[in-house]
Write a structure and sequence with these properties.
Shape: globular
Order of helices and strands: HHEEEEEEHEEHHHEHHEEH
CATH topology of the largest domain: Jelly Rolls
CATH architecture of the largest domain: Sandwich
Structural class: alpha+beta
Number of domains: 2
Helix content: 40-55%
Distance between the termini: 44 Å
Strand order of the largest sheet: 1-8-3-6
Number of helices: 9
């Protein structure tokens, strides 16, 4: 299990809190609890009562949506440093998305009473909590734009890069980026038939761009994938 110090470091270098001022970050982290979840566990579901925020430390978050007649279904996978749950804290209405884990996972939990305490002491803190929502809006806008790509191969590339958290830039280091997405979920996310999605993934694997295994894939060459979108 990650230590609190290492958990703090991960969420301070990546995602929402990396964009917040250090004093606010310190106030948030002092009120967080490090929690463990086993593969397949549900953190919260669409329609659950309002609660606090969760920041991914290790593992993966699977995000489920059900905005219309269908669902819930998995729409995105998050990388360490990502936080969810601020919408329910803003509105104190039921959860708009569901959050589950696709492998053994560790997350920091910021309870709703702690959020209320922070903003009661400093009402301007809502602005920094809002940064988490802005990050989610950016992802949603990018995802909508990617799904309008007519070429199904390029659309698949864009979705893979988004799931890996490197849609527009590659993070430092040369380590492969793992995404816990099954072929079935990938097909749904790219609006493709499962057989077509499988063919695309096998071609990417044959070209040395990704490595595919059961319910998981690794992005080996994000820069090369991204270059495919420019033509």
């Amino acid at each position: 299990m990650a230590t609190l110090d290492s958990a703090y470091d991960i969420v301070s270098r990546n995602g929402w809190l990396s964009f917040a001022p250090p004093p606010f970050r310190k106030v948030v982290l002092e009120r967080c609890v490090l929690q463990e979840y086993q593969d397949g566990a549900t953190v919260y579901s669409v329609g659950d009562p309002p609660g606090g925020m969760y920041g991914l430390v290790t593992g993966n978050f699977a995000i489920a949506i059900a905005p219309g007649e269908r669902g819930p279904y998995i729409a995105h996978f998050a990388q360490p440093g990502t936080w969810f749950g601020e919408a329910a804290a803003f509105t104190e209405h039921p959860r708009r998305i569901g959050l589950a884990v696709s492998r053994d996972t560790e997350a920091l939990h910021l309870p709703l009473p702690a959020i209320r305490e922070i903003v009661a002491a400093d009402p301007g803190a809502w602005r920094f909590f809002g940064l988490a929502s802005i990050a989610h809006i950016d992802i949603a806008i990018g995802a909508a734009d990617d799904l309008l790509i007519r070429d199904h191969v390029k659309r698949s590339v864009a979705v893979l890069l988004r799931l890996a958290g490197c849609r527009y830039r590659t993070p430092p280091g040369d380590q492969p980026i793992e995404v816990d997405v099954s072929q079935e979920h990938f097909a749904a996310m790219t609006n493709l038939a499962r057989t077509t999605a499988g063919t695309v993934l096998r071609k990417f694997e044959a070209d040395g761009l990704i490595d595919v295994s059961y319910r998981r894939l690794r992005i080996l060459a994000p820069d090369s994938l991204r270059a495919m979108l420019g033509g």
